Amino acid sequence: MIKKNNLVTQFKQHPKYGAVLNLGKMISITGGAQIIVQALGFASGILIIRLLPVEEYGLYTLANTLMGAMMVLGDGGLSTGVMSQGAKVWQNKEKLGAVLATGLDLRRKFAIVSLTIFIPILIYLLIHNNASWLTSILISISLIPGFYAALSDCLIEMVPKLHQDIIPLQKNQISVGIFRLIIIGLTMFIFPWAFIAVLANGIPRIFGNIKLQKIADKFIDKTTKPDPVIQKEIIKIVQRILPGSIYFCLSGQITIWVISIFGTTVGVAQLGALGRFAMLLNIFTVLINTLIIPRFARLELRKKVLLKASFYTISIVVTISVLLLLFVSIFSNQLLLILGNSYKDLKNEMLLSVLIGCINLGSTIFSYLSLSRGWVINPILMIIFNLFGSIFPFFFVDVSTLNGVLMLSLFSALCGFLLNGSYIFFKILRLVK
User: Fold this and answer.
1) Full-prediction pTM beyond 0.85?
2) Three-state SS for 188?
3) In sequence order, which ranges of 52-92 are alpha helices (DSSP H)?
C-alpha cells in the first residue's frame, strides 16, 4: 500500500503531470462535446434524408456541394494566414485583434467573388437536374446566410483555439446543433423542399456566429482596425494557397460533380445519403483541429519534436479509421435502415464511402499540420498530382454509376493522402538539427 502511494506521489510530481492531466481533460471535454455536436448534425441529416423526396434530396446535396466549393474559394487560405499570424501574437490582445479584423475585412471581399462565380454554376446544375427556375433561385438565395456565417466562423474560432478556451466554443457548437435540429424538425414535416432544408441549416449558424464573436472578444482588442502590414503577410500565404484552392473547388467534391453531370438526380441523392456516415469522421477532424493543430503550430522548430508530434497524430487517425471500418462492416444492414428503404441496397457502396472518408481524414490532417507551420505545397505540383488522381480512373470505371464514381473518388483520395503525407515529412526532415 505504501509502495502504491509512493508511485502515485511520484507520478503526480512528474514535471509533465500537469500538462498531461490538462490535455486529458481537454480531450474528454472536446471529445464529449463533439460527439454531441456530430450526433445532432447526424440526426438533422437523417431527418432531411427521410423527409425529403429523393429528387429534392438530390437537389439539396447539389446545393451543399456547391456551398463546400464556395467555402474553399471564399476562404482561399485566409484561415491559414490568420492562424499563422495569430500564433505569433496570441498573447497580445491588441495585435491579435488586428489580425482578426484584417482577416474579416479580407473575408468580405473573398466572399463576394466566390458568390459571383458559383451562384450561376449552382443554378445551371440544378436546372440540369430537372429543378425549375424558381426552385433553383430559391435554393441559391437560401445558401447565402449560412455561407457568410460559416466563413466568419473559420476566422473567429482561431482566437479561442489559440488560447485553448475550448469549453465556451463547444457549448456554442452544441447550441447551434440543437437549434438546427429543432428548426429542421419543425419545417421538414410541413415544407419538404430542398431550399427550406438549406435555409434551416444556415439560420442557426448566424446566431452561433454572433455568440462566437462574444467568446473571442475577451481575448482581443475590439477597437483595432485592419492592419496593412498584417494584410500583406496574410496575402502572401493566400497567394501560395489560392491556386490550389481554386483547383480544389473543382476537384474536392469530384464525385458529386461527375454524377450530377453524367448520372441522375437519384444517384446524387444516394451519394449524398451515404456521405452522412463518412461525415461522422468530422468528430475526429474537429477534435484534432481544435486540440492538436494549434499546439503543433506553437511547437519549437525542431526536427525531433515535430516528427514525434506528426507520428503521434497520424497514428491516432489510423486507429480511428480501422475501428470505424470494422464497425460499419459489422453493422452495415442496421446502418442502412437508418437512411430508409430508398437506400437499403447500398451495403458495399457504404463501406467504400466510409473508406474514402477515412483516407480523406488522414490527408486533411497532414494538410492541417503543414499549413499550421506556414508550409504550403507548390500549387503546380498539387494540381498535377491531383489531376492525375482525378482523370486516370476515367479510363477504367463507369462514372455514370454510383460504384464507378466511388472508385474514382477512392483513387483521388489516395493520391491526396500520399502527396500531403510525403510533404509534411519532407519539410520536417529538411530541418537543420
Assistant:
1) no
2) helix
3) 54-75, 78-88
